[in-house]
Amino acid sequence: MKTQGASGQAWLKRGNRMALIRRLRVHPGQSRVDLAHALGLTKSTVSALARELIDEGWLVEREVIATGDLGRRPTPLFVDPSRLLLLGTQVGIGHVRVVLTSLTGEVLQARSAGYDTSLDVEACIGELTRTMLAVAARCSKAQRIIGIGVGLPGGVDQARDQLVFAPHVHWHQVPFGALLREALHGTPLSGVPVFMQNDADVAALGETEFNPSPVADPLLLVLVGEGVGAGLVVGGRLLTGARGLAGEVGHMVLQIDGPRCSCGRRGCAEALIGSRALLQEDGASPPAPAVARAGHYLGVLLQNLAVAYDPACIVLGGGTAVALGDALLAPVRATLQQYAEAAGLPEPTLRLSRFGADAIAVGAAALAGYRLTQPSPD
After folding, report:
1. Residues 6 or more apart from 378 whose CB is under 8 A from it?
2. Separation of alpha carbons 228 and 342, rounded Å
3. pLDDT per residue over 256-304, tens digit each?
4. What pTM does this model have?
5. Which of 35, 182, 217, 378 has the greatest number of CB atoms lying within 10 Å of its CB?
6. Which band of pLDDT confidence, cut at 50, 70 and 90, is reported for residue 376?
7. Cα-flanking dihedrals φ and ψ of residue 329, to 5°?
8. CATH of 84-202+360-372, one of 1.10.10.10, 3.30.420.40, 3.40.50.720, 3.30.470.20
9. Distances in Å between the alpha carbon of 93 and those of 89, 159, 234, 251, 314?
């Protein structure tokens, strides 16, 4: 659709600015000539946009080291990691985690706090706000937070700015974004754009936005913690579903008449793989046979998801996956290999999240960067 007038020109310029930033996130160090060729823009347009973005703190140019070659070499451009920052927040079950990151994903500050899950959602938001402000206070005068991302333990309807359902804390149809913005009103974070999404979705974005790799598309991330969830990024876009409930794979049935799940059904992935399934009454580490069994069922789940989505890469994250490490990963790999050999197909590429226990919080920061730099007007 063609756009006309001042608003159309403004939209086009914003799209070109954000396309330039996103190009440099994937291909850092390109020159203005390289960018003009890659994006189909004139060199003068790229030069003007680059100057604006450098002045605003988005980009930085670095000197080229002299090699003795004749002629002037193009100056490489990079996303500036020092001036504009992102705040990423994880709302977990009874705890919150806040990280301050650069535009390229380096964690600069981090802080955690607990909240009482028996209280209402406002109590959680109050603790989250205090933690966010404590982290934001560590910024220098030369730094500015330009976006806040929130990873939530349930489905999110972005169109309505609502948390649809968070089963482990029994929150239904909560206007979480509006409540958080209200809590931040009058503080140093007042007016900073707030974006929220399901925790597995933001963790998946963290893997693609802060570690861009064209060979990892589509990327499927599965979180294994108290619950089990998945996030899928295809062509740089999240697959969230019509109501924001895509990826609720913890309630896929893996065992007919298996153990009862928190949702009321039997044999769900969460009931077989989640931390509650492995929890010992005395708080001790789960026995090896229990971990091996959970790893087998996780392998079955990943096999089903691999068949459905044919991902280039599967990433595992979440507290349980991080805590158990190779003890869980080994039976997962063995199960995937067994299925692959039976079908005569290559085994899916599998790895742990690059951000470990901070996968959701860092991913939430990536969500803010993702939403702020999308060229489209939405």
Report:
1. none
2. 27
3. 999 998 888 999 999 999 888 887 656 678 889 999 999 999 999 999 9
4. 0.90
5. 35
6. low
7. -65, -35
8. 3.30.420.40
9. 13, 25, 28, 18, 25
